[in-house]
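Can you make up a polypeptide sequence alongside its tokenized fold?
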Amino acid sequence: MKSMSQDRLLEILMDRLSRTEAQRESEDELIFHVTTQYLVELMTQGNIPHYKLDELEQDLQEELRDIYRKKTYGSLSPRDYQKRIRKIKKVAAS
């Protein structure tokens, strides 16, 4: 069973992937932006000890990389993923 925080992490990732700026980002840049946004949300909800921030950031990046690769399977970059999704939607609409 997924936790609410994992669901939110996925929402942020998928939202970022759907934006046009994702076309110009590498996988590492995308993961950095999603991690940052998620950490900001976590910090506004509660208190995260400073000595745990680096560990948390690393764990989030590893988790995001895994989720990203599963969601974009077969795509070489965020841009390639967006092109593939557009083709799929175009075929489905016809």
Q: What stands out?
A: The helical segments are 4-18, 27-45, 50-71, 78-93. The two ends are 36 Å apart (CA to CA). The chain has a mean pLDDT of 86.
